[in-house]
Design a protein that fits this description.
It contains no helices and 10 strands. By secondary structure, it is mainly beta. A hairpin with a 4-residue loop joins strand 8 and strand 9.
Length: 102
């Protein structure tokens, strides 16, 4: 199956609350920073689908609460356009936590 490229739109600011869609124990997380963000100097960073972000756990397992993890944005509500002309969006914003260094 061939991948379909597209141009994702900016949708998630620093401080946005997201759902954690994995079995790590976290339920709600907040974006703290964006890795390899591409923005103008002095402007606040943003994240889009497939970006790596640093997140802080807000709700979920009491042992994880307040800890900072790396994560990948896997779903975003804001529609983005594929090169075929169709627009794709999801019903919520979600990330998958990367707990291991692998």
């Amino acid at each position: 199956m061939k991948a379909v490229s597209g141009k994702p739109t900016r949708s998630l600011n620093i401080g946005s609350l997201l759902e954690a869609c994995d079995n790590s124990g976290a339920r709600i997380v907040r974006i703290v920073s964006v890795k390899h963000g591409k923005t103008t100097k002095g402007r606040q960073g943003y994240a889009k689908i497939a970006d790596q972000v640093k997140v802080s756990v807000r709700k979920g397992d009491p042992k994880m609460k307040g800890e900072v993890f790396s994560a990948v944005v896997v779903r975003q509500k804001k529609p983005w356009k594929r090169k075929t002309g169709e627009r794709v969006c999801f019903s919520d914003n979600a990330v998958a936590l990367l707990k291991d260094d692998k």
